[in-house]
Amino acid sequence: MELLQMNSHSFSTISTKKIIQMNDVWTSYDSKNYAVKGINLSIDRGTNYAFVGQSGSGKSTLLKLMNGMMSASKGTIKIDYQTPNMNDKKFKSMMHTIGYIPQSLGLIKNITVLENILIGALPRMKKFQSFFKIFPNEEIQEAKKILKLVGLSGKEERKAYMLSGGEKRRVAIARAFMQKPTILLADEIVSELDHFTAREIMNLIVDAQKRMNLTAIMVHHDMQLALEYSNRVAVIKDGEKILEIGVEGDKIVDFQTGDLTSDEIMEMYSDESKK
């Protein structure tokens, strides 16, 4: 009887703990030189994962592979069971669940804070509403709630170009939250900010993770900040993942034993913390 009941159960979906998986991924911008080489990684749902490395090392490329802006030349990528490809209908239908914040932030400088945030609601609106940007009242109220969440209450009518660097980042985060994402991809979201403001932004994202069960994948330059806020940190060098570490208690744990010694790992951490 119990078996019959189980078999007759109607399952609507299937979930995996590993929301992002990459297996031997390579990609190139010019079909000659690889920007990413042999990347293997898996990211647990609801965690904070960070890429750290020098400019041009391939960190931003990895985010573009995850949101379908680029395709892998070799290897496989799965985002919640889907292969990221903007030409694939199944992936396009789930793209709104991936909030992407580029280095440039992508704000429209001559429209208001509220209008910038409401752009995040466009994917779930009807074509007519989307084309003319006719936002239902419930979407406007939701945007105002998110404004409060990111600490921008009272600034909804301010034009984006009038904001400080930290405020612009909050608007970009709010726009991504408006998409109701399950994954947040953020490229250098706290770069060029002072340490106090950077931690304010990171605290905001961590708080949102708890509220929304969000998976955050972020690009950082600061190893200390990355380790402080991330479950795991992948160090990228010349397109390769040379190290994967995290903090457990008072220890830095090496999840990818490679050519680096423990002294070299600690030196990398302390060098970044002095910047």
How would you summarize the topology of this molecule?
Blueprint: H1 2-7, E1 18-28, E2 34-44, E3 48-52, H2 59-66, E4 74-79, H3 89-94, E5 98-101, H4 113-118, H5 127-132, H6 137-149, H7 165-178, E6 183-187, H8 195-212, E7 215-220, H9 223-229, E8 232-237, E9 240-248, E10 251-254, H10 262-273
Parallel strand pairs: 3-7, 3-8, 5-6, 6-7
Antiparallel strand pairs: 1-2, 1-4, 8-9, 9-10
Helix pairs in contact: 6-7, 7-8
Quick synopsis:
The chain has 275 residues and is of the alpha/beta class. The chain is built from ten helices and ten strands. Helix 6 crosses helix 7 and helix 7 runs parallel beside helix 8.
Word description of this protein:
The chain has 275 residues and is an alpha/beta fold. The chain has one domain (15-273): P-loop containing nucleotide triphosphate hydrolases (Rossmann fold, 3-Layer(aba) Sandwich). It is built from ten helices and ten strands. The chain has helices at residues 2-7, 59-66, 89-94, 113-118, 127-132, 137-149, 165-178, 195-212, 223-229, 262-273, and strands spanning 18-28, 34-44, 48-52, 74-79, 98-101, 183-187, 215-220, 232-237, 240-248, 251-254. The strands form two sheets. The chain has a seven-stranded mixed sheet, with helices on both faces. Strands 2-1-4 form a three-stranded antiparallel sheet, covered by helices on one side. It is globular. 35% of the residues are buried.
